[in-house]
Write a structure and sequence with these properties.
Layout (H helix, E strand, L loop, with lengths): L6 H42 L2 H34 L2 H35 L6 H30 L4 E4 L4 E4 L2 H5 L2 H32 L3 H36 L1 H8 L5 E2 L3 E7 L12 E7 L2 H7 L5 E2 L2 H6 L9 H23 L3 H14 L18 H31 L6 H27 L4 E3 L3 E2 H4 L5 H32 L5
Helix pairs in contact: 1-2, 1-4, 1-6, 1-14, 1-16, 2-3, 2-16, 3-4, 4-6, 6-7, 6-14, 7-8, 7-13, 8-13, 11-12, 13-14
Length: 511
Amino acid sequence: MIENVDLSTVNWARAQFAMTALYHWIFVPLTLGMTWLIAFFHTIYIKTGSEEWKHLTKFWMRLFGINFAIGVATGIILEFEFGTNWSNYSWMVGDIFGAPLAIEGIFAFFCEATFFAVMFFGWNRVSKRFHLFSTWMVAVGSNLSAVWILVANGWMQHPVGQAFNPDSARFEMQNFADVVFNPVAVSKFTHATSSAMLYSALFVISISSWYLLKGRHEKMAKRSIMVASIFGLFASGFVAFTGDESAYEVARHQPMKLAAMEGLYQGEKGADLIGFGVLNSAKKVGDDQEPFSFVVKVPGLLSLLANRSIGSFVPGLEDLVYGNSEENIMGSKEKMVKGKMALTQLELYKKAKEAGDEAGATTALAGFERNKDYMGYGFLEKPEDAVPPVGLTFNAFHIMIALGTFFPLVFLGFLFFSLQGTLLKQRWLLAGGAVMFFFGMIAQMTGWIVAEVGRQPWAIQELLPVTVARTNLPAGSVATTFFLFLALFTVLLIAEISIMLKQISLGPEKA
């Protein structure tokens, strides 16, 4: 099957999905995090009865609404692409993948949209308590939407609660609870939402810092910074905890991704964590070149983070590709042999069924069952195809970690000078804070790159490579829609930025 694949079609489909996801991810985490901050602002207004807090809440709510609308538009296109560019994938796993997406649309989005209207238009039209309740329900509904999307994504990274039906050649759900409570999905949800909280806190600090630098809306800006600093500080702790748990799940279920994240070619006991490193771009799996031009390591920490044991063995890319008998690790090379046997037996099973040969079908099915766990490897051409792009995964991961370590210091700085009452004098901090949102965006993007590029070449981890998941379309058709979407998203982004800047320029209503 693999020899008939037009790789240019696959690459254009990959590029289109990556572009859509990255545009979408500019807006989504801001929506998720801002809902909680607005809920806190709104609660303070109800508690104090201060009109200043009311106008502050309405201002941030207005910016949230602009961002929300664009996020929905890009999200809908993202779901359509599963049907247009990845129809084989949609057909093979629709029974499983469709369920969380349907729940998201019926329940979570419905809940979010219903209370969204009350939150925006309920001022002086509904009771204050119901209005506040609606604001909190928008926060809950937005994050419930994220739950189901990340359940679907988590299943692709760790496919549990399913079985392959050889008669229909489809993956079918066996246990919904296993899919929902998949540990990879849980860790992805908690890490994505906590990082969204941090990102939104940076957004508030950036705009508020700009106001203070310009000498405008000082009281509103100081209050916003105080709440956002505390919120961001708590979110930073949550991000560190969930990030550690997420990496642990990667080590358990996607060791190839972890090895790429750390640029680890040769596995070792007591493996070191890379604190800073410059990868050798010419290095390939299986050659004798050094993996790093320059590197600073933290002794033993990778083993501790990956296995909760300092002296434990962490497999490298070459262990996972070629195998390591001492550590009882089967390599991609051996898995490919088993995978091709599974595909051969599956084809023999279908032919025997069509011919009415029950004995032959039973024998072939037994052969398939013995090797079905390696079926995805049967589509690969060579063992090295199981390795994701190491340079991109490594660099994205370490940029994300560096920024994630820096952000708590930013929140601490703003909180300290706010409590001291000297924030206005710290022009250097305000200047840095005004651009901090863009660093938050970089951290969000690199995190998503680690999650998605690091799991290549798989659409479904070890079961279905992206080369098989694609739609049989000419590369030119996919390339054409790529540029159409690129133009559309760019126009939407420019529109959002223009509207957002206009609203920021206007500022909050006067109390």
